[in-house]
Specification:
The protein has about 100 residues and is of the alpha+beta class. It has one domain (about 15-95). It has three helices and four strands. The chain has helices spanning about 15-25, 30-50, 85; strands at about 60, 70, 75-80, 90-95. The strands form two sheets. Strands 1-4 form a two-stranded antiparallel ribbon. A two-stranded antiparallel ribbon has the order 2-3. A hairpin with a 4-residue loop joins strand 2 and strand 3. The chain is elongated and about 60 Å long. Bound molecules: zinc ion. Zinc ion binds near residues 18 and 22.
Length: about 100
């Protein structure tokens, strides 16, 4: 897909971590493994972009849409409140600006 160079924007949504944290806890072995798979997929996307878009200007961002916390009432993961644990999240990005000289 990236090699065709026909896209201005590609959005890849991953749901596994969210599903897993609700079923288990935010830091369960299963949930952490899901996060690791999301990171691995993002890493493959960056590697592929670097390969096919070499010499072009591009950017990629990893944007979690919410945080996560342990809900004491259920003993499972949750993220539905307007509190720092649910709302303050980190984003990661990579940009490529090849030299024009
Ligand atoms: Zn959720």
């Amino acid at each position: 897909m990236l090699h065709s160079n026909k896209h201005d924007l590609i959005v890849a949504y991953q749901q596994e971590y969210d599903d897993t944290l609700h079923r288990t806890t935010p830091f369960s072995t299963e949930a952490v493994a899901a996060v690791e798979r999301h990171i691995a997929a993002f890493d493959r996307l960056l590697e592929t972009a670097g390969k096919y878009w070499s010499g072009k200007r591009w950017g990629a961002v990893f944007l979690p849409d919410h945080g996560a916390r342990l809900d004491a009432a259920t003993g499972k993961g949750e993220h539905s409140l307007d509190i720092p644990e649910d709302m303050e999240i980190k984003h990661f990005w990579r940009f490529s600006f090849p030299s024009t000289t």
